[in-house]
Design goal:
Elements lengths: L2 E4 L5 E3 L3 E5 L7 E2 L10 E6 L2 E6 L5 E3 L2 E3 L3 E3 L5 E3 L7 E6 L6 E4 L6 E3 L4 E4 L5 E6 L5 E4 L4 E3 L5 E4 L2 E6 L11 H5 L1 E7 L6 E7 L2 E7 L3 H16 L10 E2 H12 L5 H16 L12 E4 L2 E4 L4 E5 L2 E6 L7
Parallel strand pairs: 3-4, 20-26
Antiparallel strand pairs: 1-2, 1-11, 3-5, 5-6, 6-9, 7-8, 7-10, 10-11, 12-13, 12-19, 14-15, 15-16, 16-17, 18-19, 20-21, 21-22, 23-25, 24-25, 26-27
Amino acid sequence: MATIKNKLSGQVIILNTQNTFGRNQQNSITHIPEMDVSQSHAVIFWQNEDWYIQDYSRNGTLVNGEYVHHSTRKLIEGTTIQFGKGKLAQWQLIDIKEPSSYLRSLTNPETILELNTCHILPNGKDAEILIYFSKNKKWKAETASSTIEFEHGKSYRLNEEEWQFIDNEPLEDTIDNGNVVDSAHFLFSLSEDEEHVGLKIVVDAIELDLGERVHHYLLLMLARKRLYDMNNEDIFNDHGWIPIEDLVDQMSKELYKEIDAYYLNLQIHRFRKQLLGIQPYGSLFMDVIERRKGEIRFAHRFFQILKEEKSEGEILVVSSQL
């Protein structure tokens, strides 16, 4: 994350994607209490993978000693910026990394958890918390018993500590991972008795091998429901949805033991945790299991089910879509 440091006080702040500086505390993200600083003096912003400063003030801004007035300058690491004549108005850009969302500890405000990848945190009664970026461009936290979607500025109790979430995602997508997800398919490999369920994610010529896990059987059941809906010509965008109660009942029968919704959530939690360790693309598929009120489904459109190497059914990407 990009940071800027006050040369007098030593205060270090994390730059937002659009970080305003000025004397007006209500309108400025970074307040500068100097009389020759304008109410809304300047903005530092992230664009096209670089940081820039735009001056809006009546007196101008000094950027590495150069007078900038109502114009824009590209910034580099180490740039000195002076918004007014006073020493409190002097800042230095000490890091120019791309912006990212983060969690700030409310117990110790200097403790920052940068959210530029997926994370696993220990947690009290729940074994751990998974934090990941979802396909709807929202950060989520999930335990075996619940899922929350972070909202900017709100506080959350994680790992027995209060954290505030700051949404600081770049305004434009710098990496297009959509093509990776859209061109992939899931490959289920079953033994005859279905006691062993292997799973791979195939991305072009790359096979991400997830091995055999108990939680793969849950994904198999959801994929089969999606396949059934397709073969019965249900509305395409509504393929695969199944009431959680029905899924619990079906899995109880298949596994010859009573399970509940908590067991399902635990399997989903373990699957997402497994994805974190699958490089290079595993974390892109964290939303492959999708939820809506009282229902759940396998969200990826393309998959193949092989039983003893014979196809049970498939929905695959056609070559023209690759």
